[in-house]
């Protein structure tokens, strides 16, 4: 049964942590600055500053919170603006530490494979050189630079491993996100969904006419971000009803629309070391936090037993390759009121490739 696959996935998620590559935290940037003899960073205005270090261009990006990035620039600014990706900072920082033979070099370049060229060839890259970044099946990246004659100067591949791309190990990432969830200010944006009538498709669920705004699929057909509407005259509105718990909870958890019951989520976060930490957050704040982190939300209905509904909420970061997976349960009768409380378990930073593999392994059994 399709729902049992969801339940099995949630039971196995804690076993799906990635092998940790101990990457240099951003705090180690201070050591790099010291090694390169760069001083006075605290006096810089936010933005990019270029240095000439031993004949090599080095770019330093500073925000109000301090140094965000240091590296040898090899990606055009236009590319960074139009198609944001953690790949840029990772490659430029790794090229920097390799070029200047800094201690982090051996760790950072461990997963890098050159199909063409080498680190030294990357120093010949110019700002106008065509560059492409491709993702291969959600498992690895390939970056290619071409000369003006169309020939390839450098082609490099490396795994889509979020701890490597984010310069932190899983424990650090978990704790930062938990702290962010605990301190979010609650001033969420307006998540009301607006649509055109032509986008809606009529469906019937338990003799109820419902209009579906079809979204995208994540991993399996049963994990989507579809939304569900009812028609009143010429108006179509998201709804919440105990008669349709699957569709109602999708609306509540994927939109936090203010016309729907306000959702409070009580989480027990299972951390990398198997300990747990309690977090309480509204659905609206969770969605805002995930959006700010570059995650897309998806939903699957698991089961309905004894007046309770169990669902699975996913926040997928398709750029860095991880999922946050929340298994949540609530009383169905609350869907007819003004507020609903969901309780459950969260597993943060589960590699998306591992989550996919769990489905395939489950189907083999």
Task: Explain this structure.
27% of the residues lie in helices and 37% in strands. It has eleven helices and 19 strands. The two termini are 13 Å apart. It is elongated and about 70 Å long. By secondary structure, it is α+β, with helices and mostly antiparallel strands. α1 crosses α11. The C terminus is likely disordered. It has a six-stranded mixed sheet, with helices on both faces. The longest helix is centred in the N-terminal third of the chain and has 14 residues.
Give structural attributes.
four-stranded antiparallel sheet; 27% helix; disordered C terminus; 365 residues; alpha+beta; elongated
What's a quick, concise take on this entry?
The chain has helices at residues 2-12, 29-36, 77-82, 86-99, 105-108, 119-122, 162-165, 170-183, 245-255, 283-292, 352-364, and strands spanning 47-53, 56-63, 66-71, 113-116, 131-136, 140-146, 152-159, 200-205, 208-213, 217-218, 220-224, 227-232, 235-238, 262-270, 276-282, 296-305, 308-317, 322-331, 339-351. With 365 residues, it is α+β, with helices and mostly antiparallel strands. The strands form five sheets. The protein has a six-stranded mixed sheet with strand order 15-14-19-18-17-16, with helices on both faces. Strands 4-7-6-5 form a four-stranded antiparallel sheet, with no helix packed on it.
Furnish the topology, listing elements before pairings.
Layout: H1 2-12, H2 29-36, E1 47-53, E2 56-63, E3 66-71, H3 77-82, H4 86-99, H5 105-108, E4 113-116, H6 119-122, E5 131-136, E6 140-146, E7 152-159, H7 162-165, H8 170-183, E8 200-205, E9 208-213, E10 217-218, E11 220-224, E12 227-232, E13 235-238, H9 245-255, E14 262-270, E15 276-282, H10 283-292, E16 296-305, E17 308-317, E18 322-331, E19 339-351, H11 352-364
Parallel strand pairs: 14-19
Antiparallel strand pairs: 1-2, 2-3, 4-7, 5-6, 6-7, 8-9, 9-12, 10-11, 12-13, 14-15, 16-17, 17-18, 18-19
Helix pairs in contact: 1-11
């Amino acid at each position: 049964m399709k729902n049992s696959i969801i339940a099995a996935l949630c039971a196995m998620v804690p076993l799906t942590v990635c092998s940790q590559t101990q990457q240099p935290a951003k705090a180690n940037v201070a050591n790099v600055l010291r090694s390169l003899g760069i001083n006075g960073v605290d006096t810089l205005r936010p933005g990019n500053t270029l240095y000439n270090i031993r004949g090599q261009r080095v770019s330093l990006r500073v925000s109000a919170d301090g140094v965000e990035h240091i590296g040898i620039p090899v990606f055009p600014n236009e590319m960074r603006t139009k198609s944001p990706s953690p790949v840029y900072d990772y490659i430029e920082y790794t090229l920097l530490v390799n070029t200047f033979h800094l201690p982090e070099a051996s760790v950072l370049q461990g997963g890098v494979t050159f199909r063409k060229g080498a680190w030294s060839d990357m120093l010949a890259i110019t700002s106008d050189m065509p560059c492409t970044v491709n993702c291969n099946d959600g498992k690895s990246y390939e970056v290619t630079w071409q000369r003006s004659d169309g020939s390839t100067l450098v082609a490099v591949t490396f795994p889509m491993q979020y701890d490597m791309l984010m310069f932190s190990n899983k424990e650090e990432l978990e704790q930062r996100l938990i702290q962010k969830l605990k301190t979010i200010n609650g001033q969420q944006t307006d998540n009301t969904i607006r649509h055109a009538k032509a986008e809606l498709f009529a469906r019937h669920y338990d003799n109820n006419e419902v209009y579906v705004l079809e979204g995208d699929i994540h991993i399996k057909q049963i994990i989507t971000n579809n939304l569900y509407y009812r028609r009143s005259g010429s108006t179509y509105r998201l709804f919440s009803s105990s008669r349709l718990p699957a569709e109602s909870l999708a609306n509540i958890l994927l939109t936090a629309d203010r016309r729907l019951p306000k959702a409070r989520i009580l989480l027990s976060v299972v951390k990398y070391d198997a300990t747990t930490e309690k977090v309480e957050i509204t659905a609206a704040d969770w969605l805002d936090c995930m959006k700010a982190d570059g995650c897309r939300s998806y939903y699957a209905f698991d089961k309905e037993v004894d007046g309770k509904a169990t669902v699975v909420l996913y926040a997928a970061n398709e750029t860095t390759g991880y999922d946050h997976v929340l298994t949540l349960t609530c009383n169905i009768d609350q869907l007819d009121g003004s507020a609903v409380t969901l309780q459950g378990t969260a597993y943060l930073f589960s590699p998306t490739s591992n989550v996919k593999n769990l489905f395939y392994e489950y189907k083999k059994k």
